[in-house]
């Protein structure tokens, strides 16, 4: 499954260094400035810099910031220049460590000013599943034909889901709530992993790990907390429980598979059809009473549909425009 590391906006957020990465880069700069770095230190630095794009970005920016201090003219830059010079002259003293902290804070302020209100938009094509690595350390897996807007601020993390389905592994940050929001309501992470799906029937929330608090948009007093293996649908009229699920099976789509156990064939065909570029047509009334069990590759929808057809004794006819017509044999 491909991993996406570039939003559609012109300023990507996923490679922006975190404060901890910036601090590490500043500490490396201080170590090299002290002229006491060993060969082992240099090897460790190369490994660190190569470990993630944000490490290289932080290092390059720290060095560029150091170089730009001499040209700074306003009061803020002058203060930061003095802090950086203190870092260079005091080196291994406690005051030098404080100067590094000042440099990190100042560099972050100058380079990321205004970033708290930035948003990034992501979408997937029909049949595509991709993972977006968010700046806060969370991983957002987007299902076929999905669209989201992500806003990461100092106080909260908001994912607006316009359509489709997402699964998220949430990085822990108790002081920055992680919320997936749709027109129907919100699903706020109280733990680590859950999925949210938006369709014509409302918003479906399924919890894999820990807990999620869901709230209808128009009924703030009708909130409900879901635990592992629980699912519910948020609609304009409130929250409707949907019973328990096999959490591992429910999230298999993130790996490109659909696994079903005695599930109505109409539901299975409809699910697989979401991953196909061309239409799939069938008459639900002709397929009532037919259930299937099996594992089907969502990354190969035609192969998956053939497997379902074999299991349910169905025929498949391909039209010139690529449409598949499915019915009883």
Automatic annotation (TrEMBL):
Domain FecR N-terminal residues, every copy: 24-64
Q: Which InterPro entries match?
A: FecR, FecR_N, Ferrdict_sens_TM
- UniProt keyword Hydrolase present: no
MF terms in GO: sigma factor antagonist activity
Question: Among its keywords, does the record have NADP?
Answer: no
Q: Where do transmembrane segments lie in this chain?
A: 94-114
Show where the FecR protein domain sits.
Answer: 121-213
| Alphabetic keyword roster | Membrane, Transmembrane, Transmembrane helix
Q: Which PANTHER family match?
A: PERIPLASMIC SIGNAL SENSOR AND SIGMA FACTOR ACTIVATOR FECR-RELATED, PROTEIN FECR
Query: What name has this protein been given in UniProt?
Result: Iron dicitrate transport regulator FecR
* Organism, scientific name: Novosphingobium pentaromativorans
């Amino acid at each position: 499954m491909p991993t996406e590391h570039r939003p559609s906006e012109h300023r990507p957020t996923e490679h922006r260094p975190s404060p901890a990465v910036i601090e590490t880069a500043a500490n490396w700069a201080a170590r090299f400035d002290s002229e006491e770095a060993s060969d082992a230190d240099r090897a460790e630095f190369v490994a660190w810099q190569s470990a993630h794009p944000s490490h290289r970005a932080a290092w390059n920016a720290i060095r560029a910031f150091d170089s730009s201090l001499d040209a700074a003219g306003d009061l803020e830059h002058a203060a930061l220049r003095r802090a950086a010079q203190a870092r260079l002259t005091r080196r291994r003293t406690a005051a030098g460590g404080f100067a590094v902290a000042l440099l990190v804070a100042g560099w972050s302020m100058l380079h990321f000013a205004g970033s708290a209100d930035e948003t990034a938009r992501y979408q997937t094509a029909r049949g595509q599943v991709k993972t977006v690595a968010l700046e806060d350390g969370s991983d957002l897996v987007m299902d076929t034909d999905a669209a989201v807007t992500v806003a990461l601020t100092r106080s909260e993390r908001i994912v607006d889901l316009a359509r489709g389905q997402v699964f998220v592994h949430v990085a822990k940050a108790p002081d920055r709530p992680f919320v997936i929001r749709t027109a129907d309501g919100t699903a706020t992470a109280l733990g680590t992993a859950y999925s949210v799906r938006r369709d014509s029937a409302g918003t479906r929330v399924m919890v894999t790990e820990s807990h999620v608090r869901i709230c209808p948009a128009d009924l703030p007093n009708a909130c409900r907390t879901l635990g592992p293996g629980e699912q519910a649908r948020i609609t304009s009229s409130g929250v409707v429980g949907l019973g328990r699920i096999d959490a591992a099976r429910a999230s298999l789509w993130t790996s490109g598979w659909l696994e079903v156990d005695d599930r109505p064939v109409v539901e299975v065909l409809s699910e697989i059809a979401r991953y196909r570029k061309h239409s799939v047509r069938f008459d639900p009334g002709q397929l009532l009473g037919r259930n299937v069990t099996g594992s089907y590759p969502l990354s190969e929808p035609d192969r998956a549909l053939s497997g379902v057809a074999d299991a349910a004794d169905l025929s498949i006819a391909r039209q010139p425009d690529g449409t598949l017509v499915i019915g009883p044999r």
